[in-house]
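Can't paste images in this forum, so I'm doing it all in text. The chain is below; anyone willing to post the predicted structure tokens underneath?
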Amino acid sequence: MATCPGVSTGGAFLSSLLEHIDCQGRTIGALGYQSLADPGSPFSLLITSLLTIFIALFGLRMILGRAPGVKDNVTAVLKVGVVLLIAASWPAYRTVVYDVIVQGPAQLSAAIGAPAGLPGANGDLVRRLQTSDDAIARLTTLGSGRSDLTSRAPRDQNGVALPQERAPLADDLAFGSARILFLSGVVAAFALVRLGSGILLALAPLFAGLLLFDIARGLFVGWARALVFTLLASVAVTLILGVQLALLEPWLAQALQLRQAKVVVAEAPVELLVLCLAFALATTGALWLMMRLAFAVHIPALSHAEAPATSAETPNAVGPAHAAATAPTRAAAIANALSAAQRREGAYRIGPASSRSLRAAVQSAGAGPATAPALLTMSSGQPARRTRARKSQAATLRDRRP
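Text version of the structure:
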């Protein structure tokens, strides 16, 4: 069992706390994963059972005649490979996932922050944060000098003493609130990204088995997006804290220099409070933006609707998508209707000779049902056309009325 360094009070409080949080995140991610992926653990047996069910269902589908296509075969192999990579091989998982999430943010932050000259880009962020906290504590102890009789008012360029302004907040309240915001913002951001990534890395074997089935694939996708969020959030927090240090360090150095020279810094409490509050809000907003970005990533589905696998299926068993794809266009439908109308008109053009032949055929034909079909066609094989319009007896009597 790994032992993380303890948290000390006083001058090393912030640095020891951040190192402890980082150690806990790494330990939870590594040892938690190894515990779940151990061959004798219940979760390892669960992963084995899920793999067995997945392969059995795949084979049963082939036995029933629904042979999968090439894409389905490749997708199934990829799913099994990803599950085995994440849930059963610590060396492979450490190289592909663990080191990327744990060590990747520091490398990205160094690549982005070093050219810009941000403090902490070279790996000394924790030390410089502790130095700034010590400076805030010393400035709080010295105070603004407003109530110190031995302190003198600041002077302008001509040596004239500047008038003292009324303080909107008490110096002790402003200094104390500023340090609380500074410590809380730094610790909360570090705890979120470090402990969050450690917990997600430890749960990898559990979420890996959910990739096999489409009904639970959303949980695996959510886990992957959460890992991406911790990666992006860690980079964002490091860069924002670097910008905060770039502003805070020279300001604290100037304020301490003035106080050591017995000069009143009446505006320092409010200015420090504004700096700490603004960057705490900026860190919160950056974390929200990174979350929106990570969860907006679309991961395409690994499976698709299966098409009929054999030619023994009936032609009428066509899906809606196929029917929509093969439906004729409007122009083709109109052309087909016109062509059919022309064929009917050509078939119904029967001369007088044909009419006499039809009457002769009717007179010579019997009244039995066996001869009824013969009355429907002419001797030329074309269908007969009525010489008179269809009219009922009631309609005839109605038309004869004066």
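The chain has 13 helices and no strands. The longest helix spans residues 217-260.
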